[in-house]
Amino acid sequence: MRDLLYMAEAKDRIEFKMLEHESVGDDTVSFKLEDGTIVKVKVSLERVGIATNYRNPDGTPHYAVNSAVKVYIIPADKRFTMPKNQVSGAAAPQERPSPSHIT
Fold it and tell me: Are 44 and 67 in contact (CB under 8 A)?
């Protein structure tokens, strides 16, 4: 009975084979704002897979893609702040917020 339940669940699942990947070209795009601030956007692939037991309705392969987007803000004066407790030798650190130049 347990095997039948597993087989029924398996029919409702799409299986994927993980694919290796490499970056082709730049992974970062930079924009300069009118106030001189630079905005950098970095895109990366975390995991990519191709379905082994399913195809799209038009017959093409079905992919699962997990990606990450990171945005960096670089002020025109290139200054930023951070709490003193993040400096070595300062008081014991508590919760560490991100530096002010990363959103």
Answer: yes
